[in-house]
Amino acid sequence: MPARHTKNDVYIDSNDCLTERIRVGGQEVVVHYDDIPESDITNIDGLRVTTPIRTVIDIAPDVRPRELARIIRDCLDRGLFTIEEALARLGQPDMAARKGAHLVRAALATGRPNRRT
To answer: Is the pTM of this model over 0.85?
Structure first.
């Protein structure tokens, strides 16, 4: 489902999160407001960001199925998460109603993107 925009550029995104576009230092920044558990946060060069599996779950509704499979395969190839780690995160209660979680679960179930050799 496409994002529903309002004239103030505050909208509900495809994960049903409140989202807004703002300008910071001349750059457009998209801010998503969501309740993210600490287990989905990691630190990269001093910046708090979502873990790779959470990022994939969050972007899943906005990419085509083939692209989602490629993204998952790339994450597996790079060792960013394992299939077991992905399934464990997808099985947690807060993912039950999340559209991206259903899409990632389906992508893993259909062909289980394996690591390339």
So the answer is: no
